[in-house]
């Protein structure tokens, strides 16, 4: 029997075990998926133990997505570009690291094309993963904006995309097709990183936050007629790509979406 895991600290909130167990069940795969709480200074020992215990693959979450790289044997382009790993596959006795966060999110954005005009709000680790995925997908019309411009400039330079300060963005806001909110603002406050956005009905607002299910950023967008998508799409999208790397099967995303909503509601 194969088994998989997710390593994090904290880990109790993770919905990944429920998600992958459901997918194993739906696809009649005899495997299980366990959450593992890892002490801050025990990541290396944990990875060594997983190999000894015959683990077939694992996910990595906060705060280990960057540190894990040091303990892997190979990195896929998605992980090398993002500088972070969220999915690891055991292949020929080696740990191979991938990053499915950005690609999983993009896979769930409808109508995303090579001419889409994309705005990213924020310039931290989450933004980096998404810019890397956009670059991997060949989506070039990308702009980064951030409270601290220098951080956005650095990221923009690295991936050869645009940088604008918040007031420049505000002046041309409705020219973007997709706006992705990548900061933690709105997770435990009624704040939004954009003060006066002018949404239109042809725009799509994406937030990587899923709790609360509708941040102020998304609420404003919805009230002004834009289409909205919360962080569940990214969460489930990254899981689906990880599952596919492990099993070769693209899992169904509808049932797990319903299950999570039931538990949250
Ligand atoms: P993560 O790895 O989760 O992306 P991070 O690297 O700390 O976290 O990045 C956090 C992002 O949220 C940054 O873009 C940060 O903006 P600054 O670079 O200006 O710090 C943004 N952020 C955090 N708190 C914010 C706030 N109150 N208003 C606007 N942006 C905020």
TrEMBL record:
Annotated residues for binding of NADP(+): 122-126, 146-151, 208, 231
GO cellular component term of the entry, any: cytosol
**Residues at the active site:** 65 (proton acceptor)
Q: Which GO terms describe its biological process?
A: amino acid biosynthetic process; aromatic amino acid family biosynthetic process; chorismate biosynthetic process; shikimate metabolic process
Q: Report domain SDH C-terminal positions.
A: 231-260
- Reactions that this protein is recorded to catalyse: shikimate + NADP(+) = 3-dehydroshikimate + NADPH + H(+)
| Domain Quinate/shikimate 5-dehydrogenase/glutamyl-tRNA reductase, chain residue ranges per copy | 113-185
Q: What pathway annotation does it carry? A: Metabolic intermediate biosynthesis; chorismate biosynthesis; chorismate from D-erythrose 4-phosphate and phosphoenolpyruvate: step 4/7
Q: Which UniProt keywords apply?
A: Amino-acid biosynthesis, Aromatic amino acid biosynthesis, NADP, Oxidoreductase
Location of the Shikimate dehydrogenase substrate binding N-terminal domain: 6-88
Q: Does the keyword Signal apply?
A: no
> Out of the domains of life, which is the source?
Bacteria
According to its UniProt record, the EC number is 1.1.1.25
| Amino acids binding shikimate | 14-16, 61, 86, 101, 210, 238
Membrane-spanning intervals of the chain: none
Q: Give the HAMAP family listed for this entry.
A: Shikimate_DH_AroE
Subunit description: Homodimer.
Q: Which family does it belong to?
A: Belongs to the shikimate dehydrogenase family.
Name of the featured protein: Shikimate dehydrogenase (NADP(+))
Q: Which gene encodes it?
A: aroE
